[in-house]
Amino acid sequence: MLDSQAMAVEKGAARPGDNLLRDVSLPALVLNAKAIEHNIRWMQKFVSDSGAELAPHGKTSMTPGLFQRQLQAGAWGMTLATAVQTRAAYAGGVRRVLMANQLVGAPNMALIAELLQDSLFDFHCLVDHPDQVQALGEFFGARGLRLNVMIEYGVVGGRCGCRSEAEVHALVAAIGAQPALALTGIEGYEGVIHGDHAISGIRAFAASLVNLAVQLQAQGAFALERPIVTASGSAWYDLIAEAFDAHEARGRFLAVLRPGSYVAHDHGIYKEAQCGVLERRGDLHEGLRPALEVWAHVQSMPEPGFAVIALGKRDVAFDAGLPVPLRCFKPGVLPAVSEPMQGCQVTAVMDQHAFMSVAPGIDLRIGDIIAFGTSHPCLTFDKWRVACLVDEDCTVIESLTTDF
Q: Which of 121, 144, 231, 317 has the most CB atoms less than 10 A away?
């Protein structure tokens, strides 16, 4: 029978004081502590300076230890996508959740109803159809509970959400007919707006979202004196903040931004998006830092210029670009010394293997350890039950558990 110490060698598990080059079973999900701290502080300042509140999207990491760091830095609450995620966040100490999604199905409603027994739990979910409104009203009314709902406003060809102002006003009437529901705000998501004119489209969408909120407020539709107006993913948050401010959302509404991937950032799609933010905002002299890497061993070198890495689809995102080899370490050599992996490239990934071309002049051997950058952190986090929070010396500070 395995003792607890032996069992701790499961995928990515590590203890404080362990060193990645000597003590940790690889592959492992690695978070740079300084970069995580910088990103949390950076985004909180950006949002606060914009006159808004921050509700980071927790689906990115589903890591309660990171949630608490974000809240302690000043976040208004957390955004989640499902009832199960909401329950996990609540178990991790989160007491305000904006569920930026529809609450559908009696079992999911039951999860939220259980959490609402706690009078300190502040919860808001989205609605976009009268049938959904009726189902929620009947379910929560039968249990003597009142549920906070927000209207989701969408775009044609996009995701969920009312497609017209007429649909929004019809939904307001439907909510008003349900005593168990309270209309607390309006929500949108700009990340589904693409194309050559995405920036102007996003600005127009944000303006229409605020204008709708103004109309509904004038009609006395909201249950809150200062209703919530919210949008923003991780790519265009600066445009949403700018549009909210330009259309006077600050003051009369509680403007909430919801980026999530910023906490770990990446070496791919969000790195590119951040370059766009910095180009648009000349007053921002430093941006986010990539904090997430996956470390793995070279396990085979069957041909010249070709290495097989013990890393695959089970370990790292591959939907928005293949892993990027960053640095190479010799196992057990401390203090850590790394060599850059310039010219090396991952060409394919299988379930547990990555194929990597090795550039001339790179001294690579079986057992060497490579740190890989990733693109789209959400789909790397969800492959792990634990992440290693490390310092600059590759020493584990804390093992952060995920809760997917």
A: 231
